[in-house]
């Protein structure tokens, strides 16, 4: 399906802040497709030249937010690999996932706070489609991913006209979301992701610095436990360059109370000493390392992206729980 009418622009630039209107248009299109009003010859062309037929067996509704399942977006999957989303239906057209992540607005550069409906869709695509399936470790098939909350505080990292990463935070005093009514006791950096081809370029460190600067008035800042080895390297590099932040950053469990946090700089130093001990006495430090590990409280197992990524998965439910797959709830393989 061509998008010539929007040539030079992308969904994030032209979508109105009207989730309900988008929902109605999407449902109408899906209904017409199921009724056969859309001809079976209609196809979407991939960048590889392959063409995917637009038919109900290859399209799927996905919940945009984990806490508002009635807000959905329509995605097209590759029939040859039903775990791969190739396009998203927006503004009465199908857009490739890469085009959904692009912008023609030159003011979108660097870290930009997520505010508009279009930016929420970009966050969803980065989190659920790009990280959740395309760029995660191949040996993590038992992990599934949920969309962020509708009120999740997030910043998208824009670079040269494309969204290449994001991070999300839980602010001090916000509900922790476990149904108890308890609130976070300090700002917490919850999720971080940088696309593979943009890693090893200091972007993770830049996001960590932005997090620290955003909450400059707070004496203590948290990173959700557990922290991946890659993210520990980001923390190490950042704290080496910014020693004034060493007393502020904590690895936190649950709400981040005093007994639920460990100073990150201290832990970095401990791990360095253990690594030195392993080099001197091979095989003796594995037990010591286990004593430093933190057990994540709550209901969210964790999984981390490589490089500058730090990201959480969820095994409680997959996208199917917030998703109507084509007609008759047909499973098309998208988790």
Automatic annotation (TrEMBL):
Instruction: Tell me which positions the record assigns to the signal sequence.
Output: none
Task: Indicate the segments forming the N-acetyltransferase domain, all copies.
Answer: 153-219
This protein's superkingdom?
Answer: Eukaryota
Q: Which intervals carry biased composition (Basic and acidic residues)? A: 276-289, 300-318
Pfam families tied to this protein: Acetyltransf_1
Q: Which GO terms label this protein's molecular function in UniProt? A: acyltransferase activity, transferring groups other than amino-acyl groups
User: Which stretches of sequence are listed as region Disordered?
Assistant: 276-335
Its protein name is N-acetyltransferase domain-containing protein
């Amino acid at each position: 399906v061509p998008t010539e009418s929007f040539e030079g622009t992308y969904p994030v630039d032209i979508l109105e802040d009207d989730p309900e209107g988008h929902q109605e248009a999407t449902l109408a299109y899906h209904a017409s497709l199921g009724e056969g009003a859309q001809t079976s010859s209609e196809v979407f062309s991939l960048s590889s030249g392959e063409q995917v037929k637009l038919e109900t067996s290859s399209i799927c509704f996905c919940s945009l937010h984990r806490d508002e399942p009635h807000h959905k977006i329509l995605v097209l999957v590759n029939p040859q690999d039903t775990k791969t989303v190739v396009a998203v239906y927006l503004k009465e057209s199908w857009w490739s996932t890469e085009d959904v992540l692009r912008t023609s607005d030159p003011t979108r550069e660097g870290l930009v706070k997520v505010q508009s409906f279009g930016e929420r869709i970009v966050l969803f695509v980065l989190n659920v489609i790009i990280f959740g399936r395309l760029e995660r470790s191949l040996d993590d098939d038992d992990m599934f991913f949920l969309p962020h909350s509708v009120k999740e505080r997030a910043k998208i990292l824009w670079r040269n006209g494309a969204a290449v990463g994001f991070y999300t935070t839980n602010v001090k005093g916000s509900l922790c979301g476990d149904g108890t009514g308890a609130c976070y006791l300090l700002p917490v950096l919850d999720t971080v992701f940088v696309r593979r081809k943009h890693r090893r370029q200091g972007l993770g460190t830049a996001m960590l610095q932005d997090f620290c600067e955003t909450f400059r008035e707070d004496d203590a800042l948290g990173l959700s436990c557990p922290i991946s080895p890659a993210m520990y390297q980001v923390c190490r590099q950042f704290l080496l360059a910014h020693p004034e932040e060493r007393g502020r950053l904590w690895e936190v469990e649950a709400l981040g109370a005093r007994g639920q946090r460990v100073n990150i700089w201290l832990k970095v130093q401990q791990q360095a000493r253990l690594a030195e001990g392993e080099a001197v006495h091979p095989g003796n430090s594995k037990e010591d390392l286990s004593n430093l590990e933190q057990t994540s409280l709550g209901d969210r197992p964790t999984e981390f992206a490589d490089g500058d990524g730090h990201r959480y998965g969820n095994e409680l439910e997959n996208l199917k729980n917030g998703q109507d797959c084509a007609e008759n709830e047909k499973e098309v393989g998208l988790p």
